[in-house]
Amino acid sequence: MNKVCPVCGFENLNGAEVCDNCGADIAGNDIPQSTLTFQGRLLGEHLDDLAAPGPLTVSPDTAVDEVVERMQEAGSDCVIVMLDDRLVGIFTDRDAVVKAAGRDLAKLKVGDLMTPDPVVLRHDDPIAIAIHKMAVGGFRHIPILDGGRPTGVVTARDVFHHLAEGLA
Question: Is the pTM of this model over 0.90?
Answer without folding.
Answer: no
